[in-house]
Amino acid sequence: MKVPSPGESISEVEIAAWLVADGDYVEKDQAIAEVDSDKATLELPAEESGVITLKAAEGDVVKVGQVVCHIDTSAARPEGTKAPASMEPEVSKAAAAAAPSPVAAAPNPDPIKPASYAAGSASPAAAKILKESGVNAANVKATGKDGRITKQDVIAAMSAGFATDAAQGWGGSRDQSREKMSMLRRKIAERLVAVKNETAMLTTFNEVDMKPIMDIRAKYKEAFAKHHEVNLGFMSFFTKAVTEALKLYPAVNAQIDGNEMIFHDYADIGIAVSSPKGLMVPVVRNAEQMSLAEIEREIKRLAIKARDGKITPEDMTGGTFTITNGGVFGSMLSTPIINPPQSAILGMHNVVERPVAIKGQVEIRPIMYVALSYDHRIIDGKESVGFLVKVKEMLENPERMLFGSKDPLQILLGL
């Protein structure tokens, strides 16, 4: 088997983890490896059934088109293992009913063990996540073949929540360990350093009174979830407010290409999501044309793909603006770094009840600090501040999102 091309401009990948052992019998289309490119982590499926011989080790950087394993298609399937359901002959219900009752067979004193990992142990990909997260394998329910712990089992256990070994205190030793940075992590590091060195990045801040949006969510969240089969979150409101503000300030949605500025007549919004592999930024295409429900549905679809390690380079390329939400981790305020080649990024933060002056009276309101980092080479201070103020206005007056950032009364009066 040769390494397929994960996408345009990608010439090499790294073997992140083998999901099978050398000499295992693999089925066609079974995931046998995870490979890292500088944009995403992808699964490598077996092209045929047979016994596999690995030709590259975990951590090896291999060229696209390079042979990484051999599959002996003439090898017989090991005894004690079943063919996939699609390959097993069907038995009619009539024949099954006519068959005599089976006699209990004597237990096999020497059962045949699975050809790969022992029951209860973790696959290489799962073991890697267990190690990185400090999760005890005993706390994970195994659902894989022969009782094997899969990557999805670990992710499901982590999502459910439990105390990890790392949270129970230091081990007290003076040991050190070294791990090679993945290709994806190395690329992220290079891009972040390049942004700091090659752009005139500046950050402007503001605060948003979240009460109007929180009131809408409290009133309509159940009906919204029942009708659209997706929850109503903050991200759809922010995405909608951003797309409306980008219409008024197109430079915030533009980028620099040499001595030229490229303006976009659409808004492809990157949404930063956390995944077991690190921060991913899948893109919601033509968000300016979507309703709140469509935005929520698309964000959910992309977040699930990122969580399951199935995100593709195509899902993360071509964005014109990015939104990142550090508030889900408790961040009060930050200066997000621009996602190149874009020119701006909006940072959301946690919602905290704070005393504010409302018409001369002190009231307690749910306040969120927001930050816009931008490239001062293409975006002037007036545009950056005006953009963030417009986002604030629409979030505090959600009905303006329906009328192109204008007050409904202005539309009625023709102003």
Intertermini distance: 66 Å
Number of H/I helices: 9
Q: Any idea of the CATH topology of the largest domain?
A: Chloramphenicol Acetyltransferase
Number of individual domains: 3
Using only C-alpha atoms, the radius of gyration works out to: 27 Å
Please indicate the percent range of residues in DSSP E strands (runs of 2 or more): 15-25%
Give me the CATH architecture of the largest domain, please: 2-Layer Sandwich
| CATH class descriptor name of the largest domain | Alpha Beta
Number of strands: 18
Helix content: 25-40%
CATH superfamily membership of the largest domain? Chloramphenicol acetyltransferase-like domain
Quick recap:
This protein has nine helices and 18 strands.
Mind explaining what this structure looks like?
By secondary structure, the protein is of the alpha+beta class. The chain has three domains: 1-76, RNA polymerase II/Efflux pump adaptor protein, barrel-sandwich hybrid domain (OB fold (Dihydrolipoamide Acetyltransferase, E2P)); 125-165, Dihydrolipoamide Transferase; 200-413, 2-Layer Sandwich (Chloramphenicol Acetyltransferase). It contains nine helices and 18 strands. The strands form five sheets. Strands 8, 11, 14, 15, 16, 17 and 18 form a seven-stranded mixed beta sheet that branches. A hairpin with a 2-residue loop joins strand 9 (255-257) and strand 10. The termini are far apart. The relative contact order is 0.11. The model is unreliable at 86-118 (pLDDT under 50).
